[in-house]
Recover the amino acids of this structure.
């Protein structure tokens, strides 16, 4: 038996009980799903594979999606706890910058440049705890200079905080990045900062995120002669495609995906595997987002089909490689008949980016469901080991 008190299903049951003992049937009716589905999710036999379903269930329970995912709130994960020690100082730095206060930089320009590059390296490695420790002073020193330096560091902070589950602070950092880029009149960094803003909005705000991306695309199109801007415009199209899918606007999502693919075909994959600001925009990244969009559309077979044409290893960012293996693993696990292959994919995802993999509640639920299916037979040793690394106890 797989036991983990803080799965998504366990949280759904907790909040259902808090809502006057709401029945599974009532919750299912409010969320637009079936009662057996809610029962299977709560018992850990089935996972929630679509963001739109999470939004619907959270709305029915009058909580946030973050409440159901446990993001930024749960103790017990070493990576999150190490990073959490730095979050109050990051928050304080963000407030100080937003209030317009500026200190003198504590380091010289060369040292600051090197530290900004080091933070970016940690971002590509998904080492968010180490990155979080750097950010409080790095943000304040970047603010002393302003311009693209501040936009870049605030972008880094937004990415770090979002992946650790602190979306409200990630949004603050993204706003700082947007303001700094606007003041510097630097279109490429403005596009990057607006992408960070769209990414930081909560899942419940998918329609707003899509509209924000649309506004940014329109405003930045005149600067598209700059290849860096074109890369970020492509990323904004991808973001809008996913958020439109979550919002149930499949036709709009297809239009954005078509535009992203067209732009990627003319640019090609970045020769260094990173591109501007490490965004990695090109045909490979479009393929990765297509996989995520197919997963959100409830098409696991399409995810598996797309995976055969994507080579994530050509991109530098570990998070993109992890995304490939997570989406593939969840698609393979969907039917319950390819759990051995799903386990192999999850192990590859963990190897690519251990910290965000361990923090991913959807992965945790998928592993619980796989263990539940295996309880009638011997649980594979590799599955037991992976579950242990995710904090899931598989009772003998």
């Amino acid at each position: 038996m797989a036991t983990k008190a803080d799965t998504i299903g366990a949280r759904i049951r907790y909040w259902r009980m808090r809502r006057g003992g709401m029945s599974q049937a009532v919750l299912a009716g409010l969320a637009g799903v079936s009662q057996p589905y809610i029962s299977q999710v709560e018992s850990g036999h089935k996972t929630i594979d679509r963001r739109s379903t999470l939004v619907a269930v959270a709305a029915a329970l009058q909580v946030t999606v973050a409440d159901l995912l446990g993001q930024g709130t749960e103790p017990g994960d070493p990576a999150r706890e190490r990073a959490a020690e730095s979050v109050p100082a990051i928050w304080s730095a963000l407030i100080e910058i937003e209030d317009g206060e500026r200190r003198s930089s504590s380091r010289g320009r060369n040292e600051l440049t090197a530290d900004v590059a080091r933070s970016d390296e940690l971002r590509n490695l998904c080492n968010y705890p180490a990155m979080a420790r750097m950010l409080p002073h790095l943000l304040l020193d970047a603010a002393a200079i302003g311009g693209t330096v501040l936009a870049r560091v605030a972008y880094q902070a937004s990415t770090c905080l979002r992946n650790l589950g602190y979306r409200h602070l990630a949004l603050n950092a993204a706003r700082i990045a947007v303001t700094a880029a606007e003041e510097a009149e630097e279109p490429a960094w403005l596009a990057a900062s607006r992408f960070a803003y769209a990414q930081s909005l909560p899942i419940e705000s998918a329609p707003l995120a899509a509209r924000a991306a649309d506004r940014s695309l329109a405003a930045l199109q005149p600067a598209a002669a700059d290849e860096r801007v074109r890369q970020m415009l492509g990323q904004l199209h991808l973001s809008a495609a996913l958020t439109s899918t979550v919002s149930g606007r499949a036709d709009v999502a297809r239009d954005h995906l078509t535009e992203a693919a067209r732009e990627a075909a003319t640019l090609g994959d970045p020769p260094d595997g990173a591109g501007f600001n490490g965004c990695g925009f090109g045909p490979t990244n479009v393929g990765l987002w297509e996989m995520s969009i197919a997963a959100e559309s409830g098409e696991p077979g399409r995810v598996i089909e797309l995976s055969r044409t994507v080579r994530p290893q050509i991109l530098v960012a570990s998070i993109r490689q992890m995304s490939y293996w997570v989406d593939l693993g969840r698609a393979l696990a969907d039917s319950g008949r390819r759990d051995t292959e799903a386990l192999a994919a999850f192990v590859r995802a963990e190897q690519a980016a251990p910290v965000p993999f361990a923090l991913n509640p959807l992965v945790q639920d998928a592993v619980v469901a796989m263990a539940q299916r295996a309880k009638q037979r011997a649980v594979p040793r590799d599955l037991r080991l992976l579950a242990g690394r995710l904090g899931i106890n598989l009772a003998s």
In short: Residues 126 and 353 are 6 Å apart (CA to CA). The mean pLDDT is 89. Residues 78-185 form one domain. The two ends are 7 Å apart (CA to CA).
